[in-house]
Structure prediction request, 292 residues.
Amino acid sequence: MTGPSMESTAEPEFRLYLKPPALTKKEYAVISSLAREQFGLELGMGKEQLVSARIGKLMRRLGFARFRDYYQHVESDGTGAALVELTDALTTNHTSFFREPAHFDFLVEQVFSRWRGPGPMRIWSAACATGEEPYTIALTAREHLGAEHASLPRILATDISTRALDTASKGIYKSDRFQGEPASWLRKHLMRGEGQWEGWYRMRPEILRMIEFDRINLIEPFPDVGRFEVIFCRNVMIYFSRATQEKLVNRLSACLKPAGYLFVGHSEGLTGMKHGLEHVQPAIYRKRGGQR
Prediction:
């Protein structure tokens, strides 16, 4: 095998590292307006440092030293890929398995236990982030209904972030994500990694098959997703304006079957909004009509 001569006098090439400057007030206002119009995100005041750091990291990766050049890149990209990258950078995908456990208790006691449909129910995890929520729904269903039950739900899991969806669709998580969860569940529903994957777990194929992942921007018109017995839309509306929240709740309600349930985050009460839902218990609402 041949290689460069030890006597070569060629100078190695180095690229000058330039850290993009922090966003000015005007630039922050521009990016805030774009985030609000394109994906409903209300950045507000007090997040300047966080947003500046995330935009700066994105600009460095793409090779932009000036914000105006980067912004022009986003505006001129007809494919929409640059806007998706920006969305991924700005959105926070914090979640966990069995988050707000009272919701899953209700799902077992009031939904799964009373289901009398001829086939599987449909559940939508409308802001699934990196997948912990829809997998928790699937694990809860299999534990309560049994692995071969005809009513095991079909779950649609959507998010605006392609980066989060890529993680979610793989179904692979570090073991510390499952601390405090029943060991019997882990043995039954997950596969333990070995070798270079030591310390990781992967969802079994039968769990993966229960879930369909897709990208949906909740403030844009929904594609034809059909209607659902249950919709989870938790801890995402806190980033939206009140007017956007009300519009979203009504559009989600239209996707519920009569007597279907909407689960929201515990900090996202619907008090003061106009909607066709009735309050059941904290952060759980039911669509009027149909049978309980």
In short: The radius of gyration is 23 Å.
